[in-house]
Write a structure and sequence with these properties.
Number of helices: 3
Radius of gyration: 22 Å
Order of helices and strands: HHHEE
Low-confidence stretches: none
Helix content: 40-55%
Distance between the termini: 63 Å
Strand order of the largest sheet: 1-2
Oligomer: single chain
Length: 92
């Protein structure tokens, strides 16, 4: 690798970093019942999430996706271990 290549690589990285805007964050605090905290802890363990915030962010993405599909008229179907298919009615 020569000096021109190193300089170009460094310059390319600098221009990329100049384009990146810092992400604004908001802090949210929850009061959870013991049952809800146990559920959050169990989900964190089951999903190998590093933090409770990661569990929450993933849950928000899933919830948003489900709501979007419902708004489009989609149905969620569950097939049990015996092969019986039924509607997943979590939100009704």
């Amino acid at each position: 690798m020569n000096i021109a290549t190193l300089t170009r690589s460094r310059t390319d990285k600098e221009s990329v970093s100049e384009k990146v805007q810092p992400i604004s964050k908001s802090r949210v605090q929850f009061d959870l019942t013991p049952r809800a905290m146990a559920m959050l802890t169990e989900l964190k363990s089951k999903t190998d999430a590093a933090t409770y915030a990661e569990v929450f962010k993933n849950a928000m993405k899933l919830y948003d996706g489900i709501i979007s599909e419902i708004e489009r008229g989609s149905e969620f179907l569950i097939r049990d271990k015996d092969g019986k298919v039924s509607e997943f009615r979590m939100f009704l």
